[in-house]
Amino acid sequence: MPPLELTNGVKKRTVIYKTLKVSTKKIEMASIEDIEKCLKEVKKATTFITRGRRYVTVEVRFASEDEAIKHSTDAIKTGCCNYLLRNPYQIGGLGHIVELDESMMCKRKYNRNRMPLERWVIGGWDREDKNGFLVFVPDRSSETLLPLIKKFIKPGTTIYSDCWSAYNGITEIDVTQKYTHFKVNHSENFVDPITNVHTNSVECYWKNVKRRFKSKMEVHTDMVESYLDEFFW
User: Fold this and answer.
1) Where are the domains of the chain?
2) Rounded to whole angstroms, how far apart are CA atoms 192 and 203?
3) Listed residue (132, 92, 130, 129) closest to 231, CA to CA
4) How confident is the model at residue 200 (pLDDT cuts 50, 70, 90)?
């Protein structure tokens, strides 16, 4: 087994992108040739390229951590390329309010004798920029949700959420500028009568997602994550 220092070093130099077809603006599987075209301009800075473990992902290992950071938030595209590679972006920032909520996207039934599997998703919506993120989670624990909040929401953001206990540690997340966190107790009010805090925007976001992909999810539950990715993009 390789030393932990070596493993961590490789992770810091690795960026995982998703492939988006430019003409249709949809997530699609790209050929190795198209991927190499997209990476042509940064090829000298890379040491290893492979398909990721998940749908339409590409794993790119850069020569240094600095190069990985430099390209981690960029969309990589050349003029002759039919695809672009994009890393998950962050929303929010100073002066921005991001509403957080988790929702059950679907229930996946295996057969009559087994219980359905609940598919939970956490989502965030930036009120100022009018965009958001959606990601599947194995559970709704603080150990799962807090790292995702750090990954998808910029430091210094004001976050609104319900009173789910996993959100209690938001202000303690290790970021360069701490998050400000306000809650609304949905068992009492949809809008807090004192602070006016609410999560109505992210709940509308959820409704749009579920309405758009309801028929697809009912028929092709195995592809639900790729449908969600398509909406996210």
Assistant:
1) 4-81, 97-229
2) 16
3) 132
4) very high
